[in-house]
Amino acid sequence: MGTTIRVSDGTKELLERLKREEETFDELVARLARESDSMNPGVWDSEQADAAREVLQRSRESIGPNQ
């Protein structure tokens, strides 16, 4: 049996923006936890830098041009 984690509607919206197609919320949270363990500014390898750029781009797209 799993554990229920409560988040606000705003947090859920933020997570939905980061969630990849076909990815479950469990997979998303696990991926974010793994990625945050290895994030040391200035020492990212190219894969980590690409992942950060992708998240930043998706974030910018979700905000829209007027904000």
Task: Report on this structure.
The chain is mainly alpha-helical and 67 residues long. The protein is built from 3 helices and no strands. The radius of gyration is 14 Å and the shape is globular.
Q: What is the strand and helix layout of this fold?
A:
Elements: H1 9-18, H2 25-37, H3 46-63
Keywords:
67 residues; mainly alpha; 0% strand
Short description:
The chain has 67 residues and is mostly helical. Helix content is 61%, strand content 0%.
* Average predicted confidence as pLDDT: 83
Radius of gyration: 14 Å
Which residues form runs of ≥5 with pLDDT under 50? none
Helix and strand pattern: HHH
How many helices? The count is 3
Overall helicity: 55-70%
Structural class by SSE content: mainly alpha
